[in-house]
């Protein structure tokens, strides 16, 4: 079965406000995080997987779970649901420190300046 190419549209933009379409030439199938500047492909639907990985990282942080436990959780998710799911402790830590932390600091700064 051929893969369907995904593009970043207005619906996705309103759902994921921290993402924007990549402005670099010949990269219409990439999106960029406005918080950390990371760019990644959505050409074959990877934006859903990336969003799911972010949700798991947020859940881990919110409930003060051990980053080490995410290696096991990631293996379970991969075995039961999504074979491409690879968010272990290293990726979780990276998402928390490079995406959530800068965003939270910016929100806090804005609130304190009000």
Note the total helix count.
4
Rg, Cα atoms, Å: 16 Å
Write out the strand line-up for the largest beta sheet, numbering strands in chain order.
Answer: 1-2-3
Query: Largest beta sheet, briefly?
Result: 3 strands, antiparallel
Helix content: 40-55%
Mean pLDDT: 78
In N-to-C order, the SSE pattern is HEEEHHH
> In angstroms, what separates the terminal alpha carbons?
54 Å
Q: Oligomer, anyone?
A: single chain
* Total beta strands: 3
Strand fraction band? 5-15%
Number of domains: 2
Shape field: flat
What are the low-pLDDT stretches, counting only 5+ consecutive residues below 50? none
* Structural classification: mainly alpha
Structure in words:
Helices cover 53% and strands 9% of the residues. By secondary structure, the protein is mainly α. It folds into two domains: 1-44, no CATH class; 45-94, no CATH class. Strands 1-2-3 form a three-stranded antiparallel β-sheet, with no helix packed on it. Helix 2 packs across helix 4. It starts with 9 loop residues before the first helix and ends with a helix. The mean pLDDT is 78.
